[in-house]
Amino acid sequence: MKKAILALASLSFLAVAGTTQAVQSVKLDTPLEIYVTACTTLQKTWDINSSQRKALLTDSEETLNSHCHSVFTATLQLTELGKDSKAFSRICIPSGTSNKQVLDKILVVLKKYGSTPEWKNMQPAIATVVALEVVYQCKGSKL
Prior knowledge:
- The chain is mainly alpha-helical.
- 63% of the residues lie in helices and 0% in strands.
- The chain is built from five helices and no strands.
- Helix 2 crosses helix 3, helix 3 crosses helix 5 and helix 4 packs across helix 5.
- It starts with a helix and ends in an 8-residue tail after the last helix.
């Protein structure tokens, strides 16, 4: 009986040890990296919906789209409302430019610089404003 108990105890110890060894490290994405991923998903959705097709989204894709859309549109609205302020005075988005066109252009900048040490810890709204300043810099204005 003692041998059976010892055998079971050693098996349970091995099972726990095996489980512990199976744990792996996982890269934690920064808020900006998550935002860029979300905006990439939204961009793809808009591309599909602008054609003769309709995007069929998973729940995860809908969540990503909502995240990007809310940060992106809120930031655009704030820059438009505050265009007379010093904070947004260097952003000149041409009238008639669609949100999709803006997203397409700033996403290039966000993907390029989003994981650099200077950018990776920026909050998504701030990174969006900086990307807008890069892409839609007013004539005569230097960053």
